[in-house]
Each structure stands twice: as C-alpha cells, then as structure tokens.
C-alpha cells in the first residue's frame, strides 16, 4: 500500500510540476502584461503544490530523497504525469485550452482529496491547493469562452487547440492497480468517478464558448506508467541541466 | 498669459514647499514630458528586464530557487504594470508607450542588453543591478509627482527583497565548490562595470539632470549615487570573497570614499545606441510576443463588445 500511495502522490506532484514548468516558459512572452502575471502566478501555485507533495513523498519513502532529488534526478520514464501537461505550449489558445481541461479536473481531484481523504497530510496540502486551482479554473475557462466566442480567427484557432488536446483528456480518468488500491484505502476516489462532473462542466464551458467537442477515436495515454511523449525528455534536459552538470553542489 | 504665469508660479511654489503635484494639477508641458519619458522608460526597463532573468527560470537549479526567481520576474511585470498606470495619469496610453518601445523610439535601461550566461548571473543581477536600481529609485519615492512617488514606494520594497535574494545566491555560490566560486567571480566581472554605468553619464555630461533636480524629480546627481553604490558594494564583495574587477579601486582616507577607475563610456554609448550584445534580441522577443498576442487581444475586445451588447439588449428587453 505504501508503495502504491507513493506512486500515486508522484502522479499528482508531477502533474503540477510539469505544468508549472511549461507555464513558466511563457514568462515575458504573453499576449499582454496581465497574462504574463497571471500565467506566472499559476505556475508558482502549481510549483508550490508540487514541492509540498514531492517533499511528502520523499519523506515517507525514507530513502533520503527531498523535493529536488525527486525533481532533478528522475528520468523521463520515472515521471508519472499525464501526457496532457507535458505537451509543448503552442500558442496562447493551446496553452489556455490545456489549462482549462486540466484545471477542471484538478478542482475535482483536490476537492475529493481535501474533503474525503483519510490521509490527513495530503488532505491539508489539497485544501490549500483547492483554493488556488479554483482561481486557475475561473481564469482558464473565462479565456476559453473569450477566445471561442471572440473573433472568427480566435474561434478557429481555439477549436483547433481543442481538437488536438481532446484525445489526451481520457488519460486523466484512467484507473489501474495503483488508483484502485488508493481508492480502496480511502485516500482518493477512482479517477473514473470524476469523469461525469468533469464532462458536464467542460461541456458547459465549451458551449458558452461556441466550441464543439471533437469526435476523436485516438486515445493518447501512458504517462502514469512512464511512457511519455517525445517532449518530456527535452523539458527535463533543460530543467535538470545544472543539477546534473554539478552533482552534489548546493545552490 | 497672466493666468499661465499664475499657474506656473503656483506650481513652482508647490515644488519649493515639497508638495506633491497630482495628475489633475496644472504642470508645465516640459515637466509632463520629462515625467512621461522617465516613467515610461522605467516601465520598459521592468518589462525588458524580465527577459534576462526569465532566461533562467526553466533551468533554475532547485525548486526553491525556481519559485523565488519566478516570483521575482512576476514582480517585475507588476512593476511595469503600475508604472505604465502612473504614466497614463499624464495623458499617454499604454499602447502608445509600448509602440514607442517596439519601434525603438523609447529607451530602456541598457543593462538589460547584456546576456545572462550562467546561473551566477541571477545572483549578480539581483545583487548589483537591483542594488544599483534601488540606489536610483529610493529617492524617487520622494519625487515631486505624486503617482510616480507612490508607485515607487511599492517598487522599492520589492526591489530590496530582490537585491537580498541576489546577494544570497552569490553567498551560496561563494561558499560552494571551486566551480561555483568561479561562476560567481565571472558573473561579478561581467556585471560590475555595466552596473556602474546604470547611474548614467558623469554629472558634467548628463543632459537631463539639471532641470530634473530643479523640479525635484531627481534628488541626487548621477555621480553621487554611483559613489554611494560603490561604497556600499565593495565591502559586500569582500564578504563574498570576490575581487572587484578594477585595479584602481582603493579606499581614500581623505574623502572617506572608494576611488575607482575610469568607466568605459565608449561601451556605454555603443550599448545605448543599440549595439550591445542583446539589444536586437530583447526588442525582437518583445515585438514577437506582442505580435503573437494580437489575435488574443482582438478576441478579448470582440468578446467584451459582444457581452456588453448582449447585456444592454437584455436590459432593454426587461
């Protein structure tokens, strides 16, 4: 059980860490100063969540790994994030659509963790995170609506973003031995249990945005087991460069 | 004519009595223009300044350092935002100011045209560049134009935190491995002289200084502030075990200040003229971000127009 919960916390932490890393790439490239501030703020929140969970996971593991050991010295195949969050940023519409799809999920997951989990330490982290991701969800959904129902160009662009990203959403709701064990232990409900509410909320945002859910048969998955896209390895090469170049140094 | 003389007299009296000039007060055109130039330049510097530091966010060597750096760069965007707002009180729009930046009509601090080559540059920039900025900016909290003075109070609080975090990075490096010490010294060598140039030309050749001092926009001369910075920083460098890259630097018993070698004003002029190592990249990055964001801003405007139309038609139906 401990091993399974460890694995499960890493999934949660890596979702936050990898998305924070992606969002931080936007710094000084945003469409307006306000968005530079908003995206870096969201990145900071996610980074804070990741650090809290990595610290918890590392501490419980008892192998002397702190947040940095886990962030900087795992390879891409040891990362457990969903593929959705590691995809390159694309244009602002791609980033904000990904963010909306993820934020809606993150709110449900943290809500369950904060209010139902028997793991009180995790639940405390989730309570704080929940307040943050609710803001993120408001921000990203408002932007999806603005872009979808903005100009013809923005509508087309963001519909295309949705078409590309949609096949990655199914992975969020997959369950396996790890999530089943954690659900049975009362740590967190099955991922599948979030699907219905998520779908109806996303549907309502998309219809306000005059966007339609693409018909996709593709099922892009594998991140939870360490089978990632080609993109993650590059991201980690950049992120980990100093720690790996000067092993053992304090920064 | 008489009325204008009265207004001008009242303005001068305000300045003399250290009263704040507010947005709606009468002010001489030249005062307004000087402030727009200075505040917008300052805002542009914050925005362009995000780039050299943003350069290391994705490669920060620990998650804690990444958080701090991200927060710092975000602060800079915030400074830009409220400085643009302060300038807007003088009757210029943010779009006009950005356009001036993008077309090269407006300047920003030349220091940001130098590259950040290693992680140690995050230390050196915070310690030296933000340190020099604070020297320049603290007196602005008392400048005669109210909205600028108030914006600067907040800016300075945050800058002082930035400066300390930069010093802290340098301290960690200087107590680290031999390679880390080398990184720290190398960054210090590269940033020391450009930091001294941040205070602007020598007093004898500074073209805007005299009038600005009279208007109490500027409170101390370039050379005074530069000397203060050197006097403050040299002991800090000693504490870090770093060597100031200036063979002429020595303590002067008579003046009670450090004497330092001549500044290469030729280099300064080259960078100001657009020929520094990163001038083109900094502006290109800014312009590209702005152009790539055009469709997003248009969409937001179009959506806002649709929403208010829908709201008003709902109101009239009710």
Quick structural summary:
The complex is a heterodimer of chains A (251) and B (318). By secondary structure, chain A is mostly helical.
Written overview of the protein:
The complex is a heterodimer of chains A (251) and B (318). By secondary structure, chain A is mainly α. Chain A has a single domain, classed as Up-down Bundle (Ferritin). In chain A, 66% of the residues lie in helices and 0% in strands. Chain A has helices at 2-24, 33-61, 67-72, 83-86, 92-116, 120-148, 152-165, 177-184, 195-208, 231-239, 241-245. Chain B contains twelve helices and two strands, in the order H-H-H-H-H-H-H-H-H-E-E-H-H-H. In chain B, helix 5 (120-137) packs parallel to helix 7. The model of chain B has no long low-confidence stretch (mean pLDDT 95). The interface between A and B is large, with 50 and 48 residues.
Map the helices and strands:
The complex is a heterodimer of chains A (251) and B (318).
Chain A: H1 2-24, H2 33-61, H3 67-72, H4 83-86, H5 92-116, H6 120-148, H7 152-165, H8 177-184, H9 195-208, H10 231-239, H11 241-245
Helix pairs in contact in A: 1-2, 1-8, 2-6, 5-6, 5-7, 5-9
Chain B: H1 2-16, H2 29-54, H3 63-88, H4 94-102, H5 120-137, H6 146-174, H7 178-197, H8 209-214, H9 222-240, E1 250-252, E2 257-259, H10 265-275, H11 279-292, H12 294-317
Antiparallel strand pairs in B: 1-2
């Amino acid at each position: 059980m401990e091993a399974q919960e460890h694995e499960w916390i890493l999934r949660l932490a890596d979702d936050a860490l990898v998305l924070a890393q992606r969002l931080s790439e936007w710094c000084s490239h945003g469409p307006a100063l306000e968005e530079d501030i908003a995206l870096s703020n969201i990145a900071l929140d996610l980074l804070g969540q990741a650090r809290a969970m990595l610290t918890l996971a590392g501490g419980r593991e008892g192998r002397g790994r702190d947040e940095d050991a886990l962030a900087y010295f795992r390879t891409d195949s040891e990362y457990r994030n969903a593929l959705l969050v590691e995809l390159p940023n694309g244009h602002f519409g791609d980033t904000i659509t990904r963010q909306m799809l993820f934020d809606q999920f993150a709110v449900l997951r943290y809500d369950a963790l904060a209010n139902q989990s028997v793991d009180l330490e995790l639940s405390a982290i989730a309570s704080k995170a929940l307040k943050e991701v609710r803001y993120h969800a408001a921000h990203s959904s408002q932007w999806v609506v603005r872009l979808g129902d903005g100009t013809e160009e923005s509508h087309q662009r963001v519909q295309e973003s949705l078409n590309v990203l949609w096949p990655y959403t199914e992975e969020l709701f997959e369950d396996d031995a790890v999530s089943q064990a954690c659900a049975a232990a009362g740590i967190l409900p099955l991922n599948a249990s979030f699907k219905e509410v998520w779908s109806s909320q996303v549907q309502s945002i998309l219809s306000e945005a005059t966007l339609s859910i693409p018909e996709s048969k593709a099922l892009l998955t594998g991140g939870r087991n360490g089978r990632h896209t080609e993109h993650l390895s590059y991201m980690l090469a950049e992120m980990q460069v100093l720690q790996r170049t000067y092993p053992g140094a304090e920064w | 004519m008489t009325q204008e003389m009265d207004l001008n007299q009242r303005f001068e009296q305000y300045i003399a009595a250290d009263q704040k000039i507010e947005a709606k007060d009468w002010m001489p055109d030249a005062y307004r223009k000087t402030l727009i130039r200075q505040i917008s330049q300052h805002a542009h510097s914050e925005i362009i300044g995000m780039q050299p530091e943003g350069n290391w966010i994705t490669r920060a060597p620990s998650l804690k350092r990444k958080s701090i750096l991200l927060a710092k760069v975000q602060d800079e965007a915030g400074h830009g935002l409220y400085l643009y707002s302060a300038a807007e009180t003088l009757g210029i729009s943010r779009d006009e100011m950005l356009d001036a930046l993008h077309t090269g009509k407006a300047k920003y601090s030349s220091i940001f045209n130098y590259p950040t080559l290693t992680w140690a540059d995050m230390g050196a920039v915070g310690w030296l560049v933000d340190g020099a900025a604070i020297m320049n900016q603290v007196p602005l909290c008392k400048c005669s134009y109210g909205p600028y003075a108030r914006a600067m109070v907040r800016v300075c609080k945050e800058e002082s935190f930035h400066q300390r975090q930069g010093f802290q990075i340098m301290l960690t490096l200087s107590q680290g491995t031999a390679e880390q010490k080398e990184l720290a010294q190398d960054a210090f060598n590269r940033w020391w002289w450009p930091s001294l140039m941040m205070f602007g030309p020598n007093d004898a050749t500074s073209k805007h200084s005299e009038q600005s001092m009279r208007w109490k926009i500027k409170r101390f001369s370039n050379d005074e502030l530069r000397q203060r910075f050197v006097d403050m920083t040299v002991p800090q460098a000693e504490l870090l075990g770093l060597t100031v890259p200036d063979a002429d630097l020595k303590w002067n018993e008579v003046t009670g200040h450090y004497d330092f070698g001549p500044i290469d004003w030729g280099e300064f002029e080259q960078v100001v003229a657009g020929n520094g190592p990163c001038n083109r990249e900094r502006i290109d990055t800014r312009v590209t971000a702005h152009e790539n964001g055009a469709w997003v801003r248009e969409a937001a405007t179009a959506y806002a127009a649709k929403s208010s139309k829908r709201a008003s038609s709902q109101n009239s139906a009710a």
